[in-house]
Design a protein that fits this description.
Layout (H helix, E strand, L loop, with lengths): L2 H21 L10 E8 L3 H18 L5 E9 L2 H9 L5 E4 L1 H10 L2 E9 L4 E2 L1 E6 L14 E4 L5 H13 L3 E4 L6 E6 L3 H10 L4 E5 H4 L7 H4 L2 E6 L3 E2 L2 E5 L4 H13 L4 H7 L5 E6 L6 H6 L12
Parallel strand pairs: 1-2, 1-3, 7-9, 7-10, 8-9
Antiparallel strand pairs: 3-13, 4-13, 4-14, 5-12, 6-10, 6-11
């Protein structure tokens, strides 16, 4: 049996049953009715269970009139696993950042339903950060130098800046670059990116505009020696997507719940523990043309490393 198949089998047999057992205590479920299945792309299901149980419970309670009697969280390790679950109708709804969602939409029956607002913010942008004294003022100055990304699944700290650099004619290589190349490495956490730029381990770091204002990710003592040398255009903070062949009545009810019903103070208090979400707004699909054009430039086999 191939090693990768054994890993997936162990994941399904041992982790998922525990997750579903824990989740059943969070959402009331009747003997009949539809069970809403909320997907999450993650390598850490135990860590994510509490947050996504909040969201699943929130939706299930508000969709009872559409025949929903309960819900469950369904985890997958990578894009291909999640696409299979969506296409087999084992996932109905999934929330994630733009890059993973675009990858999923390419290979599964998925469409975007709404933007998720986090802490009142519906969009943000990528920034490239360098030292005050680095002498790096434009993208062409990056030739022969190193840039730190967060990880392979990050929209603001990998996908967007990598595509921008490629568009400007930069040749990116993992590791030490030649004088005509840009080398990259993965720092795995935002604070590491900040530290590596400050110490000179890398010349530039890719962060989000939200990271720049977060003192835990960019501490003031380090920020004083850093500056932003590039900003991208804005893009959605997070997107909620649905299976395209979901029951039409349930699809309408879900759309009404998220986009046409004003959230009460109680609603906001209930959903906030789920990724600090504060509201939803319609998705403008025509805004993704640039991203769709360049999605093929990046490896499609995303594997989230949380």
């Amino acid at each position: 049996m191939p090693i990768s198949f054994r890993r997936n089998l162990i994941f399904c047999l041992f982790i998922v049953p525990v997750v579903l057992l824990a989740f059943s205590t969070n959402v009331s479920a009747a003997q009949d009715g539809y069970t809403l299945k909320v997907g999450r792309l993650t390598s850490s299901p135990r860590k994510d269970l509490a947050e996504f149980s909040v969201f699943t419970d929130y939706l299930a309670k508000r969709l009872q009139h559409a025949g929903v009697s309960g819900g469950k969280v369904v985890f997958a390790r990578d894009i291909n696993e999640m696409a299979l679950l969506i296409n087999n109708k084992q996932v109905d709804v999934i929330s994630d950042s733009l890059y993973p969602q675009l990858q999923l939409r390419k290979i599964s029956n998925l469409d975007f339903l709404s933007n998720e607002h986090r802490d009142g913010v519906s969009s943000y942008h990528s920034i490239l950060v360098t030292r005050m004294d680095s002498g790096i003022n434009q993208l062409s100055d990056l030739k022969g130098k190193m840039i730190a990304f967060e990880d392979e699944t990050s929209t603001p700290s990998y996908f967007v800046p990598r595509v921008i650099l490629t568009q400007t004619g930069m040749m990116l290589v993992k590791g030490t670059p030649s004088p005509e190349q840009v080398g990259y490495t993965f720092a795995r956490e935002e604070i590491n990116i900040t530290k590596w730029v400050h110490s000179g381990k890398v010349a530039v770091g890719a962060l989000s505009s939200k990271d720049w204002t977060n003192p835990k990710r960019v501490p003031p003592a380090l920020k004083a020696d850093l500056r932003i040398m590039y900003r991208s255009a804005e893009f959605p903070r997070s997107i909620l997507a649905v299976r395209t062949d979901l029951d039409p009545q349930l699809m309408r009810a879900l759309r009404n719940t998220l986009l046409e019903t004003t959230m009460t103070v109680e609603d906001k208090a209930e959903i906030y523990p789920y990724r600090s979400v504060t509201g939803f707004s319609p998705v403008m699909n025509d805004k993704f043309d640039w991203f769709e054009t360049h999605i093929s430039d990046i490896d499609t086999s995303l594997h989230r490393k949380d």
